[in-house]
Amino acid sequence: MTRPDDGRVVPSWLAPLVDVAGNLRAEDLTRFVPPPEDMRRSAVLVLFGEGETGPDVLLIERAHDMRSHAGQPAFPGGVVDDTDADVVAAALREAQEETGLDPSGVQVFATLPALWLPPSGFVVTPVLGWWREQSPVGVVDAGEIAAVLRVPLAELLDPANRVSVSHPSGFVGPAFAVRGLLVWGFTAGLLSRLLALAGLERPWDASVTRPLPDVL
């Protein structure tokens, strides 16, 4: 176990990410840096825990009948409301609303730079957390969320589960084929960069490519 600057304990496997997270720039994570004008703000919770099969990360699968991003895996999160104190509060509130997570058990150890999602026009702030005291999670509103998953890092890091995806729009990026899902887009890109920057990534063949439907 190790202690971040706030003195609280995180597991040793998470320490490399804790060490690098505080110094990351938007350019270290994506080529989509927010434009200078005001944009719609949102926040996502990147929550790491220790499940029955070891270290994992919390993901949701969006409902399959949504008008946008239907069926797409993602981090819990959403729009920053006027009632939210800050992006951390927004990320924790959205995670609670979507998964039933108890926010009091989450130790936030970093707030990353805001990132821009051109397809949606949102500026997204990733909030990184350690699931210090775990609570039950599941689908709260089936109209918005199809599934809540704790995906083991071992599966995400397995080179056999790594692919690149190509989209008719011209987008090409990393993806993870896990739990019968294809994690791609913003979620996969951020996961891929965080795992690499933390020194956890294993070599994988980026030339293995899957197409994506026109869902942006």
Overview features:
single chain; alpha+beta; four-stranded mixed beta sheet; 5 helices; globular
Outline:
The chain is α+β, with helices and mostly antiparallel strands. The chain has helices at 15-21, 26-29, 87-99, 153-157, 185-197, and strands spanning 40-51, 54-62, 73-74, 77-79, 106-111, 115-117, 122-131, 145-152, 162-166, 172-178, 181-183, 209-211. The longest helix is centred in the middle third of the chain and has 13 residues, at 87-99.
Give a written overview of the molecule:
19% of the residues lie in helices and 33% in strands. It has 216 residues and is an alpha+beta fold. The strands form two sheets. Strands 1, 2, 3, 4, 5, 6, 7 and 8 form an eight-stranded mixed sheet that branches. Strands 11-10-9-12 form a four-stranded mixed sheet. It is globular and about 45 Å long. The protein starts with 14 loop residues before the first helix and ends in a 5-residue tail after the last strand.
Portion of residues within helices: 10-25%
Provide the residue-averaged pLDDT: 88
Strand content: 25-35%
Main sheet properties? 8 strands, mixed
Kindly state the number of beta strands.
12
The DSSP helix count reads: 5
**Classification by helices and strands:** alpha+beta
Q: What gap, in angstroms, lies between the N and C termini?
A: 41 Å
Shape: globular
H/E element sequence? HHEEEEHEEEEHEEEHE
- Runs in which pLDDT lies below 50 for 5 or more consecutive residues are none
Over the alpha carbons, how many angstroms does the gyration radius reach?
A: 16 Å
